[in-house]
Design brief:
heterodimer; A: about 375 residues; alpha+beta; five-stranded antiparallel beta sheet; four-stranded mixed beta sheet; about 25% helix; B: about 425 residues; Alpha-Beta Plaits; Sulfite Reductase Hemoprotein, domain 1; 3 domains; four-stranded antiparallel beta sheet; 15 helices; binds iron/sulfur cluster
Amino acid sequence: MGYDPANPMADRITDIGPPHFEQFYPQVIKENKGKWLYHEILQPGVLVHVSETGAECYTVRVGSARLISIEQIRELCDIADAHCDGCLRFTTRNNVEFMVDSKDKVQPLLDDLASRGNKFPVGGTGACVSNCVHTQGWIHCHTPATDASGVVKAVMDEIFDHFVNMDLPAKVKLALACCLNMCGAVHCSDIAILGVHRKPPMIDHDAITGLCELPLAIASCPLGAVKPAKATNAKGEEVKSVTVNNDRCMFCGNCYTMCPAMPLADPDGDGIAILVGGKVSNAKSNPTFSKMVIPFLPNTPPRWPETVEAIKNILEVYAKDANQYERIGEWAERIGWEMFFETTGIPFTMKSIDDYRLAYDTWRTTTNFKFTSHCK
Amino acid sequence: MPKHDTPLMDELESGPWPSFVTDLKRQAETKPECWDILGQMELSFKDRITHWKHGGIVGVFGYGGGIVGRYSDSPKQFPGVAHFHTVRINQPSSKFYSTAKLRAICDLWEKYGSGMTNMHGSTGDMILLGTRTENLEPLFYDLTHDLNQDLGGSGSNLRTPACCLGTARCEWACYDTASICHHLTMHYQDEIHRPAFPYKFKFKFSGCPNDCVASIARSDFSVIGTWKDDIRIDQAAVQGYIKGEYKPNGGARTESKAFDMEADVLALCPTKCMRMKGDELQIDNSNCTRCMHCINMMPRALRPGKQQGATILCGAKAPILYGAQLATMIIPFIEINPDNEYEEVIEVIETIWDWWMENGKNRERLGETMQRVGLPTFLKVMDVTPIPQHIKIPRENPYVFWSDEEVPGGFERDIREFRKRHAQ
Ligand code: SF4
Ligand code: SF4
Ligand code: SF4
Ligand code: SF4
């Protein structure tokens, strides 16, 4: 049998949800779930979890591009079949984890992975740079201000040593989102790469009539910059359309989400902002948002050298300067943001001063500050 | 044979990180539409702008989500990606797979799609990247009949719930994240597949305050494991750390400086509720905020307490529309009880939904509705008694909204009566 286009509703199955997770557990997980006592990272990318039964689970963590082919998945399966009784898992940060139940199975697995070129880098544990969670960019999305996979490849190539080593003060979670929709959790990352637009939307008066519900387009703007207006289309007809108050626009792209006749992407307008110092974990300090320290870097495919350089610089200064166990945000808070800008050499501009809602909360209202080179 | 020249993409084949370009080229040998993916990407790299059109509503019959429509703006040049819809497949909890299952998904995608995937999407689904409209129904048929799998969510609905590893392989999990995630995913299939909400709504389950699935930053309904009693201490293991027998922080650094109990643990405890009394580590648990730092530092010596459950926080979101929000703590402790099928948690969820579906505006995330009406109103809706744990600091402005009933005599007064005693 199979799908019958003549009778699409025949024996239709819906709402069955995902398969139950337990059937996919490796045996050692099945037997020791809820009984784990402690874990330790044996070397970068290799963990052992020890159960109260004495059982051990060795995990080898491997970075992945996230954008992967079925050929690549089949190769992952070959590895899991050869070493892990046909089980594997993916992590929230797009890594792949291979699990074995004894120490002597680890080295053959590592050797196998290493024999396959650069496809399966072992790392992503402890005080490293995490795999860069990211979004779609130019491979699939209609609203990006930059690419995703390409930027991530360019950045990860250059900071690769920090993925396969554990030589930073603490873990650095890296994330990229290609527009302000932020499909990934970049707003709470140690280092966030964010695609930003800088030109207001254009209005396609020729297309807007059939394409958009004008009230929705108008309501979509958080700053009320979109107003109803009459315009003339290519045929010379007067049409109901909208106008944008460019001085009010903050380039969020929300109008374009609601109205396809208002595109705002642009090769020179678009680029990348860098935010730092966010975290989601509650350990030591509270979860916090990332802060914008570089408002704009240009889109320079294929390797985005300015973005790569900026991230390397922040990482190297942090690695040298921060106390052990201190996350980037904790370090910046301790030394003060003026010192962050001083030591990283990142130029401080007006763009890093908040002028959106509740901005006042971020202004300094004390005489406690440090005299850095910024005070002339 | 390559169909397009891709000099810019080719630059991304070198370097130590896995190359999606090399991968695409390998896949193109059996799925020639991948040449057109490469071709259109190359054009975007050259033009520095996307070449995908805005949306397009496609789906499978009876579902309002799970498929994201996509069309190329240069279909003549790149016919293999003229349609490039994505299919979201609900992942199993914690993303464990058998190779048999993964291979079956690969075969399905070989038959009906481009051969390219995202493992996984940011919300948690497996993403099959790029297929044509006419393939959707046959794919869905095979997916449900042969693979026993289903689509995830997209649009203004319950998005595919996600969870951390939980008790499966993490000693810190204070509840079984995978079980509740799976149970609620099954319980709310209708809400996942048929959009009926003001906007998207996300559940995320983390087993402890380390919050590996970023639920506090990303979910409307964030469930984070915690405990009520005392951190369990193995004093002998504490000595093991002090004597340098165990690697601190679970071996998170290759070359750690020597473990320093005072500097690395006691001084970094945010509440300063720990101290050494002789050889004994003492924790003033009533002042501990369960941040996990000391446990992270000494996994062999310290464990979360035994009276475990979760804290529920609400309303996290990314910036669009009015700015990013972290989730706000609403219920300090709730039992996660599989025996009654998570009745307590479900009651909380449905109280939120009943109210939000009525009061949320179009495209307003729960966090924004909460901001608009204020936390006091939201607590009233939730029938939650206000406690200091709900706030960071008490109000700093004097603008209190007292109500008519709260003030003796009410708001109605007689100005003439007033004037009899107080001349104008
Ligand atoms: S972050 Fe924006 S551009 Fe990127 S995939 Fe998400 S919606 Fe698309
Ligand atoms: S981009 Fe944002 S701020 Fe600018 S007009 Fe559109 S919705 Fe308004
Ligand atoms: S959130 Fe906590 S319980 Fe879950 S995997 Fe992370 S550390 Fe373990
Ligand atoms: S969990 Fe955090 S607050 Fe509690 S004792 Fe440990 S370090 Fe201190």
